[in-house]
């Protein structure tokens, strides 16, 4: 009898855990879809989706020096 109760309890906890994981993943999926749609709308409004973005990162002075050991 104790084994049956233990098995039922384990199955119940596993089910609740899987429900929590599914809800978490679904929430992440919905936020990713929302972000994708917002970005799509943003770039569509800025020029029909044909925007090229260039990012320039300035180099530091220390990266130009050579270090020898």
Structure description:
The chain is an all-alpha fold. The protein has a domain at 2-49. The chain contains one helix and no strands. It has one helix at 2-45. The mean pLDDT is 80.
Rg, please?
26 Å
Considering DSSP H and I runs of 4 or more, what fraction of the residues is helical? Answer: 55-70%
What would you call the shape?
elongated
Classification by helices and strands: mainly alpha
Helix tally?
A: 1
What share of the residues does DSSP label as strand, in percent? under 5%
Please provide the count of β strands: 0
Give the SSE string: H
Give the helices and strands, then pairings.
Layout: H1 2-45
Name some characteristics of this structure.
mainly alpha, 69 residues, 1 helix, elongated, 64% helix
Provide a compact summary of the structure:
The protein is mostly helical.
